Amino acid sequence: MNQKDIDQRVFDLYDEYCHGFIDRREFMRRASSITVAGVSGLAMAQALLPRYAEAQMVSFTDERIKGRYVEYDSPGGSSGKMRGYLVQPAGNGPFPVVLVIHENRGLNPYIEDVARRAAVEGFLALAPDGLSPIGGYPGNDDDGREMQKTLDQAKLRQDMLNSARYLKSHAMSSGKLGVTGFCWGGGTTNWLATALGADMNAGAPFYGAAAATAEVPKIKSPLLIHMAENDERINAMWPDYKAALEANGVSYEMHMYAGTRHGFHNNSTPRYDEAAAKLAWDRTVAFFKKNLA
Fold first, then answer.
1. Predicted TM-score of the model (pTM)
2. How many domains does the chain have?
3. In the structure, what pLDDT confidence band is assigned to residue 1 with cuts at 50, 70 and 90?
4. Number of CB atoms found within 10 A of residue 264's CB
């Protein structure tokens, strides 16, 4: 089942579910009341659930890269320690580095695959698991989403900040740091631009919440902002964010991808838009290569 087979009402319910406003049972219950041309909303809802094994683009055994899990200190974070998935290109470096920040459910296989995609392009990539202080990504998004909601959000952000600093100072790092993230990770990318200031060299948030207007003057890195056309909650923040970026002389590009939905880069569900995802990723890679050289 692909996008055109799924009713907009089911997409709207999925958006509520993904962002934690309703649980999986309620998502399925409400979807089951919808029927379109003989196709049940329950079938549509089930089609939207992620299929990570089918979505892998770069194998963890790919000879162009080397991935491993690393642990590092995270003072002021959820537990004082963090764990992440570090992927390096072939060779000894130094490499420009890219932090890859997960959605609101921990370090799932899709985000690990994005880190591998970044490494294939020549970046030392780190995908931190914000859930590691409480056991790590549990193997499914439902539990991961509930676990992430239990965390102190300020401490969780501190863990992402410490992850960025760990990566930037890594022995294989060139000292040039890029950050990208998706959904919650996109909003955290915007926040890290304010928290890191000149220590961040480029940011590419995907459909993430805008940084606080009062904090925008702290942004020193260029931003490449990816947005979905059908993403009312995130898009409503854009006019004020745009005005603040321009008022403070922040270098940015914003791309709105026609016909797409929140999550269009995630190729594990039918919200995925192959053409838009490829274009956004190609732009991101070129942007990082330019600004992290």
1. 0.89
2. 2
3. low
4. 28
